[in-house]
Amino acid sequence: MFYTYISFTGENKLYDIGVTSHLKRRLKNINALKKESEHIKIVYYECFDNSRQAGLKEDQWHLMQEKELIKEVKRNNPLLIDLISTTEP
């Protein structure tokens, strides 16, 4: 399984768009590189059977204007909550 994800900062600003085979591990790695005050959260993701499909979706998202992308995320996650908890084992 592969995931295309959109991550935001704790201040709800777009941080990154990417592809991974393990969302929780990716989020832990991203946050390990940031200061504690710069927490990053995954606010939207989609699952795919293979990396090619996930990569195509990532490309679509990169072509969107930031305002349009944020609007799409808010339509699916209006409160921009963190969908992947890294505090659980």
What are its keywords?
about 90 residues; alpha+beta; GIY-YIG endonuclease; three-stranded antiparallel sheet; 3 helices; about 40% helix
Q: What's the helix and strand layout?
A:
Elements: E1 2-9, E2 14-20, H1 23-33, E3 40-48, H2 51-63, H3 66-76
Antiparallel strand pairs: 1-2, 1-3
Mean pLDDT: 89
Global morphology:
globular
Q: Could you tell me the number of beta strands? A: 3
Largest beta-sheet characterization? 3 strands, antiparallel
Please give the count of helices: 3
> Could you tell me the strand content as a percent range?
25-35%
Structural class: alpha+beta
Strand ordering within the main sheet? 2-1-3
State Rg. Answer: 13 Å
Describe the structure in your own words:
A hairpin with a 4-residue loop joins β1 and β2. A three-stranded antiparallel β-sheet has the order 2-1-3, with helices on both faces. The chain has helices at 23-33, 51-63, 66-76, and strands spanning 2-9, 14-20, 40-48. With 89 residues, the chain is α+β, with helices and mostly antiparallel strands.
